[in-house]
Amino acid sequence: MKHVSILVPESSVIEAIADPRYMFTAVNQFLQSAGKPALFNVQLVAIKPEVKLDNSVFSVHADVLLKNVKKTDLIFIPALTGNIKNALELNKDLIPWIQEQYKNGAEVASLCLGAFLLAATGLLKGKQCSTHWLFANDFRNMFPDVELVDGSIITEEQGLYSSGGANSYWNLLLYLVEKYTNRDIAILASKFFAIEIDRSSQNAFMMFQGQKEHEDDAIKKAQEFIEDNYCDKITVDNLADKFAIGRRSFERRFKKATNNTVVEYMQRVKIEAAKRSFESSRKNINEVMFDVGYTDTKAFRTIFKKITGLTPVEYRNKYNKPALELA
User: Fold this and answer.
1) 2-205 sits in which CATH class?
2) What are phi and psi of 91, to 5 degrees?
3) Hey, where are the domains in the chain?
4) For residue 213, what are the contacts with CB-CB under 8 A and spacing of at least 6?
5) Where do the DSSP E strands lie in 54-170?
6) Dmax over Cα atoms in the chain, in whole Å?
7) What are the CA-CA distances from residue 262 to residues 37, 49, 90, 223, 247 (Å)?
8) Pairing relationship of beta strands 160-163 and 154-157 according to DSSP bridges
9) How far apart are CA 87 and CA 100, in angstroms?
10) Could you report the per-residue pLDDT of 116-168, keeping only the tens digit for each?
11) Strands (E), 210-291
């Protein structure tokens, strides 16, 4: 019997507590229906008997207190909500227990913004992690020694798991179900919960928001210039000259401030503009391509797919219903 401990932190998201419980208890039912024994002992674990969430709209009653769980096999850290720094402070007493359980052989999985609490344990130092794309810059600023994988839905390294944003944690739940049971049970769970199995990227859902929470004013001005003139042909030399900075120094400062090279930043700004056009206009692929400053169809398609995980046509059809009806 595998012991699954779903933590109930303060300032956490109720769905990210209820959903893993639902998934793993349902898997027990699938196994029993097939004449096999239940595999998981699923418990809600908290420091105190009752945790009130969402301004006391929800009240979660722990199955067992943290101090009474001496050994477990799998720990879920649900998504946090509200001010992340405050949430980490409220839940700092969970950290030694997570560290101790991991040391004793438990695996640990964070869901969405639960990655912040997992990173706060220090267990992710030098390792890969994923979280909600919207909070990527905040995560990098708070945990520079963790390798954040942009756009990834699932990361796994040395018994530590993380998931991308919001509902993408269902894919991590499926992944763990398959690991602990088998492919057939994972497929059954994916059909029961209507989840697309093996989805590995959240890129199609990401919106690029250039990292500007830094103190390099010249680089901020360069970012703003790129964003205001994305349809024009801009080179790194142009930008370095415009802001009176040597090219090598400009590239180094830009990468340090934004976590992107200059070329990557320009590409992402252009593709973000293209995405908005595909979502809201009836322009064809070439019209949008020219609008954002590309003239090579193959290059545009390649970069678009690299950033979003979809071709321009797939993206337009996914997010623009009128365009799909006209196609």
Assistant:
1) alpha beta
2) -110, 15
3) 2-205, 217-326
4) 137, 141
5) 58-61, 64-65, 74-77, 107-110, 128-129, 147-148, 154-157, 160-163
6) 73
7) 56, 51, 39, 9, 11
8) antiparallel
9) 21
10) 999 999 999 999 999 988 898 899 999 999 998 876 678 889 999 999 877 78
11) none
Under 8 Å between Cβ of 139 and 146: yes
Cβ 12 vs Cβ 31: under 8 Å: no
C-alpha–C-alpha distance, residues 152 and 162, integer Å = 9
Residue 20 corresponds to which amino acid? P
> Residue 212: what residue type?
K
Distance of alpha carbon 135 from alpha carbon 190, whole angstroms: 27
Q: What is the pLDDT of residues 221-271, one digit of tens each?
A: 999 999 989 888 899 999 999 999 999 999 999 999 988 899 999 999 999
The span from the CA of 117 to the CA of 105, in Å, is: 19
C-alpha to C-alpha distances, 30 to 23, 178, 186, nearest whole angstrom? 10, 13, 10
Chain centroid offset of residue 85 CA: 18
- In this structure, the chain runs to a length of 327
Structure tokens at 59: 């009240």
d(CA 321, CA 164): 26
CATH architecture of 217-326: Orthogonal Bundle (1.10)
CA dist 75 and 125 (Å) reads 18
Global pTM? 0.68
Task: Compute the distance between CA of residue 299 and CA of residue 304 in angstroms, rounded to an integer.
Answer: 8
How far is Cα 75 from Cα 101, in angstroms, rounded to an integer? 9
At 64 the three-state DSSP class reads: strand
